[in-house]
Amino acid sequence: MRKNWKNKGLWVGLLMLVWLVGCSSDGKQQKQGPANPNNHAGHDHAPTGKAGQATEYTCPMHPQIVQNEPGSCPICGMDLVKKVQPGAGDSVAVDADLKALLQPTNALVVANVATVQPERRTESVTLTANGIVTYDTRRLYTIPARYGGRIEKLYVRYAYQPIRKGQKLLELYSPDLVTAQRELLYLLEADGTNIPLIAAARQKLRLLGLTDGQIDEVVKRRQPSYSLAVFSPYDGYVVEGSSAAPAPAMPAPSGGGTSAGGMTGGGMGGSSTDEVVFSAAPSAPASSGVMDGALQVREGQYVQTGQTLFQVVNPTRLWAEFRLYAQDAARLKPGTPLTISFTGSGTPIQRARVDFVVPFFASGGTDASSQFVTIRAYLSGANGPRVGQLAKATLRQPVPNALWIPATAVLELGTERVAFVKEGGAFRPVRVQTGAQSGTLVAVTRGLTEGQAIARNAQFLIDSESFVNVTPTTP
């Protein structure tokens, strides 16, 4: 009995000890709070966010899984993350300045750059144009065959051989000419008193190209001449019958448009054709069919009536032809003084005047900026330039009452030009049309008005042309 009571007391003591240890750990846990801060067991409210709303958790891969407490996704097992509530984050009020900055980049280009206003005044511009020295066509003569026949003797042997007026060029046998001589001799023998018929026979020989001296020689000898000489009626140089005077090649902009100080081939409506290049290098005037300076006319060759035997060029007076952009030549008139220099020949500079402005455009392209006007000045060929020589003309003319801006304020975009007008805190691209250029200034003929503030340096505003979207303007 005594042992049983002892065993029962031992078991009761152990139970009391276990009960005391459990109560002590439970008290500590209540003082320290829950080990997991996200464990809201025992609380009577749900987790809340900054705005007082209940915090929700979702799966990044499966957004349809939404819970009010952290955990794992039942589909993929990923940890749930807090779900961002709509409208969360800091908000900023958008004022007028910020609204301008938020415009699309292809509508407004924003920069803090210096501005300038267009000024209306009169400026004197310098025009330069490339050209070529060519024949004066009024001194380009043709020597035709007035009767058909065979060349018996040729005295002109090579192209560009100098000849003088009255010099013998060739001897020609012609059956028609022999017949006309016999008619005159027959009238003299059969009806020597018939003055009208004899005068008509003489006139016929004159029209065939015989001189009075040759006719008198036939009458004196009383025999027809079977080989008659052809004399030159002009001074100059002999060229082939089919040769033509050289003309300046069509100038082409290196990029399209008019030339200027900032011109790169088309430039920005400038005042110079310095950048105009020839589409083909002009060569010295050459005769069609001339080989090594020889002529195609040969002894023993038959020619027909009216066939051109030679062309004779008198180079004592020449033309210098230049091509200007149409807008540069708009105010150009005959009599305008110009200075002509010659490329790489040592020929001294000549001063001349514009003698003729061709009344038609020479088109080098499909747009208006590729139209050219040809001007002509007369030069003295004595100890001066040669035909086919390159030349450059420089002339000045005033541009009255024009709107001028810095050339750097215009941006070249291929076939069009733009300037940036300041509106509020931003710059808007505006299509402009430019004219002549004077130094660092360029005249604007369309697109801008006085009082507008434009960017002084248009190139500074962009790093790519793709940012500029020009709004079409009504004409």
From TrEMBL:
Identify the residues that the record assigns to the CusB-like barrel-sandwich hybrid domain, covering every copy: 142-312
Q: Which residues form the Heavy metal binding domain?
A: 57-83
**InterPro entries with a match to the protein in the record:** 3HB_CusB (IPR058791), BSH_CusB (IPR058790), CzcB_C (IPR058649), HMBD (IPR045800), MFP_Cation_Efflux (IPR051909)
Q: Name one GO molecular function term.
A: transition metal ion binding
Pfam families, A to Z: 3HB_CusB (PF25869), BSH_CusB (PF25919), CzcB_C (PF25975), HMBD (PF19335)
Q: Which UniProt keywords apply?
A: Signal, Transport
Domain (CusB-like three alpha-helical bundle) spans: 176-225
Compositional bias (Polar residues) spans?
27-39
Segments forming domain CzcB-like C-terminal circularly permuted SH3-like: 405-462
Is the keyword Signal in the record?
yes
Q: Which GO terms describe its biological process?
A: copper ion export; plasma membrane copper ion transport
> Which residues does UniProt assign to the signal peptide?
1-24
Which parts of this chain are annotated as the region Disordered? 27-55, 246-268
What is the official name of this protein in its record? Answer: Efflux RND transporter periplasmic adaptor subunit
Q: Which organism is it from?
A: Spirosoma sordidisoli
